[in-house]
Task: inverse folding
């Protein structure tokens, strides 16, 4: 896979087939199949990691454009429902040299400084922000406390529905269990509720929760549709399906154009958030300086931190549908006994103003 | 002979004609999970996973199933996987027969607990919660692990484990406590809840503090969690070989305070004892840190072969679900100190913070062993050597070199902390640790308050 003999590399290709059957009286439903595949590759010249880049594949989903990620995630690689065509789209041979060069360059790159600045999150990092600071806190079982001992609760309350200002007007979040190739795409959830697309945050206002039939009844809104177990020996829990940051307008270049001084943060490296999903801290593998609207030097060991609604309030632009990318995560942990859910998220590059970077410097 | 070894030998016969190894990992477990003082997610599992590893011409194939009637098909799939593989020059071959140290770790009373018992013991914990809601679980299990190999190796062990985890919580207040052991008779569910409730009652009206580097007293729950996350990159051979480990280029150097001595001791009956690992290699006690000096990491056969230089497996081949991570410690043993109590540790640091439990850790810098995460369910200020007012949950971002670099003390008493989050097949493991005082615990932010 990697052509540079100076760079030892490792990789994993996983495929799986999930079959689900839901049977209930008075009606029954038929079997659905969720074939999937994931690829992870690591180029490791020393202790620094960078991941293989992926080609662009337009026009795959209900979104105007749907691209494969430029960097496989650190979260078990690139994953989606599909077959061998996914692996072929990755163009690993073609993209590996660039990733190898980036990995080597990271060894010499200066450290990301500390301070406050404008930050543009790559789609792959933006989806982690969505997952941790929107997905989990909008799970209704957390809101009602049933995950308190382990995964935690939520800063949201049932009364916040329809009124809580989650972020800026540029923030639109959708839960869509019908997204093509999504790991959270199914015909019906583990309670037999048909898949649907629904708004969670609309123009910055909380409009929906992820729910089960029981929690939806308790709330008096919604009809469930997010109950999923990770296998035969675990109980279904309220889980994310495919939760997306909806695209805005314009290109990535236009997003950068009016930034005098900032950072572009790419490829998640570390993640942590508190038990109510307020205080978070993320690190990325690569950061790029933004100077006068252009990408500049590579920086290493970038981190940023914030508090969920304050951070999302600083979102002032999301790039358009042509920049939108879908990613799968296979390691979403929750429950006792523990369960690892497969979920997907899509996002375009997103710009946030006045973000604290360089934590612990 | 256990049903697991029976199954392993039956599967090995199905793979006749090839060099082969069979692992059976069976569990009968129950989790009585409760929230707001109601058992709401009881889960019972009775399962046996069979994994066959077949070697053909230096090529290795793996396959697994939990269908006892599918062993012929399983052997066929493993053979096909081997045929499709490339020879791995580092493959050390299957484990030869070995002598195992007989260890305890099985308790009949614990093995025989059923759902009614698990619900009863959960109810004992819940009844002690007073005005607080109780969140957590009672669990117990019997785990059977057996290995049979064409090399002539056979190994079997039965493990039991039980744990009660208690979060006493209401709006604006929460406290944490837990007990775990391989003998259910060691657990006192009501006492666990009394501890978590007492802690919770002291967390109301939590205050914020300014981010800065504080001295800190860490309860055993927090110490165990830090060690677990430190181990992922730094204390296993895979991270060491891949140069992600804090120990790279530091073996033999004084890296921590000389009060810090850490081993992995799966042979200790006070921990969760284990005779062998998932390749059938006898388990060894491994000194990782001695008097603050970095001594080594844990190995399995593949990483030892890959590293060469005389390395040998220490008996830490991981269970199926962890193969991606390579060998890791599963019986942490941090040496005790001389402090009579956590109150004495607070006296020693004078001014700082008191941390009960940590939440959602992440590795910021592998080689530098920089970890981040949040405190929760019992964070307090220490003033004038006394535990004082409650604090909100704090974000910490700490190099382990700082946390363990200057340690004013550790407690004489240690406790076994459960580290098994019950993902995948059951495999009890934990950390036998004291409370610890450090002069440097870097707080980089504040988060939510305690409670629901």
Result:
């Amino acid at each position: 896979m990697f052509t540079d003999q100076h760079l030892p590399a490792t990789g994993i290709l996983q495929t799986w087939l999930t079959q689900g059957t839901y049977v209930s009286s008075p009606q029954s439903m038929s079997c659905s199949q969720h074939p999937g595949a994931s690829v992870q590759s690591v180029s490791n010249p020393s202790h620094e990691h960078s991941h293989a880049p992926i080609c662009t594949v337009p026009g795959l989903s209900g979104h105007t454009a749907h691209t494969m990620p430029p960097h496989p995630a650190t979260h078990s690689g690139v994953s989606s429902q599909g077959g061998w065509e996914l692996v072929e789209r990755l163009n690993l041979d073609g993209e590996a040299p660039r990733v190898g060069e980036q990995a080597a360059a990271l060894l010499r790159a200066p450290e990301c400084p500390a301070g406050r600045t404008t930050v543009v999150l790559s789609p792959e990092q933006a989806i982690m922000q969505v997952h941790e600071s929107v997905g989990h806190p909008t799970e209704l079982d957390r809101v009602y406390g049933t995950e308190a001992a382990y995964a935690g609760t939520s800063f949201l309350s049932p009364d916040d529905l329809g009124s809580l200002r989650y972020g800026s007007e540029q923030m639109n979040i959708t839960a869509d269990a019908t997204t093509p190739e999504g790991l959270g795409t199914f015909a019906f959830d583990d309670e037999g509720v048909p898949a649907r697309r629904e708004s969670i945050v609309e123009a910055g206002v909380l409009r929906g929760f992820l729910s089960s039939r029981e929690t939806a009844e308790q709330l008096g809104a919604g009809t469930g549709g997010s109950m999923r177990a990770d296998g035969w020996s675990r109980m279904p829990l309220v889980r994310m399906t495919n939760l997306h940051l909806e695209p805005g307008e314009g290109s990535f270049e236009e997003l950068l154009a009016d930034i005098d001084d900032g950072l572009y943060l790419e490829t998640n490296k570390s993640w942590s958030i508190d038990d109510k999903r307020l205080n978070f801290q993320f690190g990325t593998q690569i950061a790029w300086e933004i100077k006068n609207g252009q990408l500049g030097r590579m920086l290493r060991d970038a981190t940023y931190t914030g508090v969920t609604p304050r951070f999302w309030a600083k979102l002032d632009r999301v790039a358009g549908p042509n920049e939108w990318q879908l990613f799968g995560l296979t390691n979403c942990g929750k429950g006792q006994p523990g369960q690892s859910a497969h979920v997907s998220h899509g996002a375009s590059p997103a710009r946030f103003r006045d973000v604290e970077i360089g934590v612990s410097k | 002979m256990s049903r697991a070894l029976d199954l392993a030998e039956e599967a090995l016969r199905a793979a006749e004609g090839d060099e082969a190894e069979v692992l059976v990992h069976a569990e009968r477990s129950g989790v009585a999970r409760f929230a707001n003082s109601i058992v709401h997610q009881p889960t019972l599992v009775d399962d046996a996973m069979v994994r066959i590893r077949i070697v053909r011409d230096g090529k290795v194939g793996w396959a697994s199933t939990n269908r006892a009637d599918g062993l012929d098909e399983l052997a066929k799939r493993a053979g096909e996987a081997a045929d499709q593989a490339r020879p791995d020059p580092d493959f050390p071959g299957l484990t030869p027969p070995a002598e195992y140290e007989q260890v305890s770790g099985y308790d009949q009373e614990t093995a025989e607990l059923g759902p009614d018992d698990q619900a009863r013991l959960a109810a004992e914990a819940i009844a002690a919660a007073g005005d607080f809601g109780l969140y957590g679980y009672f669990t117990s299990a019997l785990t059977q692990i057996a290995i049979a190999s064409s090399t002539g190796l056979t190994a079997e062990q039965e493990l039991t484990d039980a744990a009660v985890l208690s979060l006493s919580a209401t709006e604006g207040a929460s406290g944490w406590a837990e007990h775990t052991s391989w003998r259910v008779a060691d657990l006192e569910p009501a006492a666990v809840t009394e501890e978590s409730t007492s802690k919770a009652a002291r967390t109301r009206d939590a205050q914020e503090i300014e981010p800065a580097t504080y001295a800190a007293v860490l309860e055993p729950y927090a110490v165990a969690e830090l060690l677990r996350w430190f181990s992922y990159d730094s204390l296993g051979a895979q991270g060491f070989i891949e140069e992600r480990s804090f120990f790279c280029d530091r073996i033999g150097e004084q890296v921590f305070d000389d009060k810090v001595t850490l081993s992995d001791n799966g042979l200790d009956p006070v921990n969760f004892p284990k005779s062998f690992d998932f390749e059938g290699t006898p388990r060894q006690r491994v000194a990782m840190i001695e008097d603050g000096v970095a001594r080594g990491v844990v190995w399995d056969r593949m990483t030892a072969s890959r590293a060469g230089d005389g390395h040998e497996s220490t008996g830490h081949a991981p269970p199926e679900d962890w193969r991606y991570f390579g060998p890791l410690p599963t019986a942490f043993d941090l040496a005790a100190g001389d402090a009579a109590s956590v109150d004495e540790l607070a006296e020693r640091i004078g001014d700082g913070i008191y941390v009960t439990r940590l939440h959602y850790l992440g590795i910021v810098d592998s080689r530098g062993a920089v970890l981040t995460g949040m405190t929760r369910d019992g964070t307090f200020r220490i003033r004038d050597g006394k535990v004082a007012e409650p604090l909100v949950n704090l974000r910490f971002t700490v190099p382990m070199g700082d946390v363990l670099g200057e340690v004013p003390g550790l407690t004489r008493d240690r406790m076994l902390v459960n580290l098994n989050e019950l993902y995948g097949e059951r495999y009890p493991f934990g950390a036998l640790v004291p409370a610890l005082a450090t002069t440097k615990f870097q707080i980089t932010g504040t988060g939510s308050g305690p409670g629901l």
